[in-house]
Structure formats: structure tokens, C-alpha cells
Specification:
The chain has 150 residues and is mostly beta strands. It has one helix spanning 86-99; strands at residues 11-16, 25-30, 42-44, 51-53, 69-71, 102-105, 108-112, 123-126, 130-134. The mean pLDDT is 86.
């Protein structure tokens, strides 16, 4: 492959739908022309004033100690894709909100048989890629969908 430089303004992977009746076409690669980004998502770059995506650094929580963190596993939640973690997760979230503590979900799959209630003001964070998966009779009927996380 020949050397050189190439600037790719926008790159995408996914389906493109040409009209409302289309099944779409699979696409991969540079987009030309570059789609216009909505103005709330743009900020002026210090590199020549060009518009770039707005971004924000992820919180590091370096200002809180271990005593200010609630791990859902300590409440009996199971992240090994087994059991029912509904009650344990709800208790951890309630305590986290009441005590103004950060609720942490370690990586894994948490099975729940009822709705998870997230109180207003709750601070929660997942480590790697935790997943909450609805299981059981409550969630079986596609004609009567139920809320998994509220």
C-alpha cells in the first residue's frame, strides 16, 4: 500500500436508509459529504476555529473514598448471569441515594425479575460493561411490555 496521509472527516459503520420503504444498505467507510452536526453538539476548536464534536471528560471520582462507595455485590446482587438481583440492586440504589454515595456495578450480567427503581439524585457507575437483563414471567408478554429500569 502506498504511503501518504489522508484526513477522514467522518467515518461510519451501519445501515443507510434511502427512503421509508427501504431495507437499507450496509455501509462502511468515509462519508462524503460530511453530515452537518447539530449546533448543540459542536464547539469551536482552538485549532483554527473549526467545528468539532463537543466532548466532556469522564468523572474520575478521585475526591471520594472507599467509604463513599456502595458496591451492589455487597448487597447480594449476582453478576454471574444467575439468580435474581432485583431486591439487592434496589436496596443498594435506595441506600446510595439516601446516603449520597456512589453506587458501583462491577462488570457482569445482573438478572432481574422486577423493575429496578433508580431514585432521583442517584449517582451510579458501571465498571467495564455491566448489564441488567430482565427475566421471568413479568417480562414475557411482548404485548404488555414492562419497565426494566425506571
Amino acid at each position: 500500500m502506498a504511503g501518504g496521509t489522508r484526513t477522514v472527516a467522518t467515518w461510519a459503520l451501519g445501515r443507510a436508509y434511502l427512503d421509508e420503504k427501504s431495507d437499507g444498505i450496509q455501509g462502511l467507510g468515509a462519508l462524503s459529504p460530511t453530515p452537518l452536526k447539530p449546533s448543540p453538539l459542536r464547539a469551536n476548536s482552538k485549532l483554527g476555529g473549526e467545528s468539532v464534536f463537543y466532548s466532556r471528560s469522564k468523572p474520575q471520582y478521585s475526591d471520594i473514598g472507599a467509604a463513599d462507595v456502595i458496591n451492589v455485590l455487597k448487597y447480594g446482587a449476582n453478576n454471574a448471569n444467575s439468580g435474581d438481583s432485583t431486591d439487592a440492586i434496589n436496596r443498594a440504589l435506595q441506600d446510595g441515594a439516601k446516603q449520597n454515595k456512589l453506587v458501583v456495578f462491577p462488570s457482569g450480567i445482573y438478572l432481574v425479575s422486577n423493575t429496578i427503581e433508580v431514585p432521583v439524585g442517584t449517582r451510579l457507575v458501571g465498571i467495564l460493561w455491566p448489564q441488567i437483563m430482565a427475566v421471568g414471567d413479568r417480562f414475557k408478554d411482548p404485548k404488555k411490555p414492562q419497565v426494566v429500569v425506571r
